[in-house]
Amino acid sequence: MISALDIYLFDLRGYLILEDAIANDHVKELNAILDNMENLKPGEWYGYVQGHIFLTAKEGLNLQQIYEGGEPFERLIDNPSWIDHVMTFVGGQNSFDSHHGPLFIDENFANIRGPGESIGLHGSPVPWSKRAQFHVQNQEFNCGQINILMALTDIGPDDGPTMVIPGSHKSNFLNPELSSSHIKARDGAVDGATGAIEVHMKAGDALLFVDTISHGSKRITTGKRRTIVYRYGPSWGFFRHGYRPSKGLLDRLTPDRRKIVWPHHKTENSPYLI
């Protein structure tokens, strides 16, 4: 359940830490499946999951479409630890109608990083974009994207913790430490960014944050960092990459999960929609 304090702190800071969001046995199931995928190379497939990198290999390996990885990943789609929070912040809590569901996941992936790997500072409300917006009107949220970053390993000071700049989701000015070039802005860790704090997590914790907050991660000193990210937006959104859910996945999902993965209902005699 979402509390009044959750709402206040999210509005103030742009993020929340949800402790014990995933049960220990569930974390073990997720890690056991990832054990078989973590050696994928970019472009390689494991069923309907693809190895992928963002800009450079220094940001770690992504396993895109991870909700195709099995039922334990499907269970995360509407996890009760965060689904009410996400619907409230995206503004989808009143969107259960005949045309759209409450939300849409436009990207979902596991990320695996080792020593020396990180992702640089990125995210800002300047310049403005619809996907990254943070907006509140009449005490109701309408955020373009809410991310749930799930820790599958303990993430302490040396484990490449995510870093955020609290309150930066409301900034009216460009952070001068962010380069005007998006590529340069993400080249290097965020260790020394002014105002950034480390978010330490235990396996099973989740970090909820609006995408427009400035965020990144420190470099890993030792060990391996495993996380999963589901990115939620309004149901009328579309996929960030060229991936689409498989028919097998859609057939397996519960009706509520299917509305989030594929919000668009089939039109009679239409050859285009599943």
Task: Explain what this protein looks like in three dimensions.
This protein has 274 residues and is an alpha+beta fold. The protein has helices at 4-13, 24-34, 71-74, 83-90, 182-185, 247-252, 255-261; strands spanning 15-18, 45-46, 49-52, 61-64, 104-113, 136-137, 140-141, 146-151, 162-164, 197-199, 206-210, 215-217, 225-233. It has one domain: q2cbj1_9rhob like domain (Jelly Rolls), CATH 2.60.120. The strands form three sheets. Strands 1-11-8-13-5-4-3-2 form an eight-stranded antiparallel β-sheet. A three-stranded antiparallel β-sheet has the order 10-9-12, with no helix packed on it.
What are the key terms here?
13 strands; 8-stranded antiparallel sheet; about 270 residues; Jelly Rolls; 3-stranded antiparallel sheet; alpha+beta
Q: How does CATH name the architecture? A: Sandwich
User: What is the chains' assembly state?
Assistant: single chain
Radius of gyration: 18 Å
Count of folded domains:
1
- Low-pLDDT residue spans: 180-185
Helix % is: 10-25%
Report, as a whole number of angstroms, the end-to-end distance: 33 Å
Identify the CATH class. Answer: Mainly Beta
Secondary-structure element sequence?
A: HEHEEEHHEEEEEHEEEEHH
The CATH topology turns out to be Jelly Rolls
Q: How many distinct beta strands?
A: 13
Largest sheet: 8 strands, antiparallel
Structural class, from secondary structure content? alpha+beta
Strand order of the largest sheet: 1-11-8-13-5-4-3-2
Fraction in beta strands: 15-25%
- What is the average per-residue confidence, as pLDDT, rounded to a whole number? 89
Overall geometric form: globular
- CATH evolutionary superfamily: q2cbj1_9rhob like domain
Work out the helix count: 7
